[in-house]
Amino acid sequence: MRRIGIIMMLIIVLMMSFLTGCTTPASQPQAPASKDVTTDVLVLGGGGAGLVSAITAAENGANVILVEKMPAVGGNTIISATGITASDTKLHEEAGLPFTVEDHIKKTMETSKGLADEKLVRVLAENSSDAYDWLVSLGLSYKIQSAEEPFWIIPTEGHYGAQLVKAFQAEAGKYKNLEIKLNTKATEIIVEDGKVVGAKVEGQDGAYAIKAKSVILATGGLNNAPEMIAEYNSNYKGVNTEMTTPGPTGDGIKMAAAIGAQLKDMEYFQMRPLSANGYWYKEVIVNEEGKGGILVNKKAERFVDETMKPWDLAAEILKQEDNMAYIIFDTDVYNTKDGKKAFDQGKGVKADTIEELAAQLGLDAATLKATVDAYNAGQDPFNRKAMGKVTVGPFYGVKTLPSSHYTMGGVAINENAQVLNESGNVIEGLYAAGEVVGGLYGAGRVAGNNTLDDIVFGKIAAKHALGK
Questions:
Q1: How many CB atoms lie within 10 A of CB 236?
Q2: Which strands form 395-400's sheet, in the order they lie side by side?
Q3: What are 425-439's pLDDT values in tens digits?
């Protein structure tokens, strides 16, 4: 398993400890199983999508078992610090800030570079207001981020992901017909006579099978599976994984592919080119007109157009020695919110001169000075779209390790969240929701749509599985 930044790990451990302490009896590890068990709905994965699916199935009267391989529920949802995207909500109406369903669809399709499945995107947008209402019914409170970004709905206060998982867990605890098995990993989807009828699992009580009328796949993406990321897109070989929890290692995608599920958009990933210690920094610190800094490699040389798209920039950094680079900027950038964040969270270094900065970073002083001087003189062999400068001391340097942030691709589904095979036909009995799904985002994702799709397709999967 790849390393996780120390700070991120501490946050995850604290959150998991808190949530485990708040866990209801229904979410405690169960007694050892002496034989295979049966249920109506089996949910694989206990992140946001899995919890929503399990809650929805349980509230509709089904007996539900959710298995989660980690010692606590939450998945990557628990570390989500953004919010949810939704359209035509009561919040928009009350604020007088319109963001319609059609706006939502257009923004999602444009961000995807036209590659998303518009039928799925329409389902997502048309159900977003109901998803928002459901969150409010759980006791959560939100506000619109800003008039400039009316699509983005964030918590009134507090950490988004931690609040969300806590609310989901409390809701799950209301149902005696919902059993959550922690430290239990699904290893194989069981198919009989062409229909999915359960999964093999391994837990504290050994290996056994859980038979079910329907299985909902909610195991997350590939963020903690660097070898699989490189397999599907070699440009991201060597990517860092500090911006994830330990759980998303591609288990569900491998299990689904093994029974003939169609995989879609697997070459697309959301990468953070400027990242370290589990944090990422906005690219504005290296691409702003008149102010942005530069990236240099271990030879103290520029190697890229710093203003290119983030996923391309990440790929170029990963080609450098040790798959990393240094962000070099001046006091004008440091005095911005994003510059200070990069320096503080990236544990950067500061010096009065470029030569002193080079010494602290372990770079050749003469080369770094020549690189910075050339940039300040407007010499740019990489055709930047906007030129900045590094002239106002003190000067700052921060190491960056590009990190995987979100898996765009995954199993193909239809509007009912049913998993499709390679011929485009439904795999009977198998559903999917959350980051394990492909087709919703193409080459780019609108921030907040991911937690929306956990809810929308998590609910659709559960209801359709029960014939609702």
A1: 21
A2: 294-296, 325-330, 395-400, 349-351
A3: 999 999 999 999 999
- What CA–CA distance (Å, rounded) separates 375 from 386? 12
Residue of 79, 58, 75, 280 lying closest to 163 (CA atoms) = 79
pTM over 0.85: yes
Task: Give the contacts of 110 (CB within 8 A, at least 6 positions apart).
Answer: none
Q: What is the DSSP string of 285-320?
A: HHH-TTT--EEE-TTS---S-TTS-HHHHHHHHHTS
Bridge partners of residue 185, in order along the sequence: 202
Q: Residue 252 in contact with residue 308, Cβ under 8 Å?
A: no
Contacts of 457 (CB under 8 A, 6+ apart): 49, 123, 124, 413, 417, 432, 433, 434, 437
Written as one letter, the residue type at 349 is V
d(CA 133, CA 138): 9
pLDDT, tens only, 83-125? 999 999 999 999 999 999 999 999 999 999 999 999 999 999 9
CB 374 within 8 A of CB 389: no
The Cα–Cα gap between 393 and 179 comes to 59
Q: Give me the mean pLDDT over the 25-29 stretch.
A: 42
Residue indicated by tokens 């897109």: 233
Q: Which of 450, 75, 440 is nearest to 252 (CA)?
A: 75
Which residue(s) pair with 38 in the sheet?
211
DSSP 150-198: TTEEEESSS-HHHHHHHHHHHHHTT-TTEEEESS-EEEEEEEETTEEEE
What DSSP assignment string belongs to 242-286? TTS-S--SSHHHHHHHHTTB-EESTT-EEEESSEETTEE--THHH
Count CA atoms closer than 13 A to 33's CA, side-chain side.
Answer: 18
Cα 296 to Cα 280: distance, rounded to the nearest angstrom: 18
Tokens of 360: 């602290």
CA 103 to chain centre: 23
List % helix, strand, coil for the chain (3-state, nearest 5): 35, 20, 40
CA dist 66 to 2, 69, 190, 197, Å? 26, 10, 16, 15
**Residue 275 is encoded by which pair of tokens?**
């990242």
The verdict on whether omega for the bond into residue 394 sits within 30 degrees of 0, i.e. cis, is yes
Using CA atoms, how far apart are residues 328 and 201, in angstroms rounded to an integer? 49
Q: What are the DSSP calls for 111-125, one per residue?
A: HTTT-S-HHHHHHHH
Does position 24 have pLDDT exceeding 80, yes or no?
no
Phi, psi of 155 (to 5 degrees): -60, 145
Distance from C-alpha of 109 to C-alpha of 121, rounded to nearest angstrom: 8
* Main-chain dihedrals φ then ψ at residue 193, nearest 5 degrees: 55, 40
- Mean pLDDT (whole number) for 338-344: 96
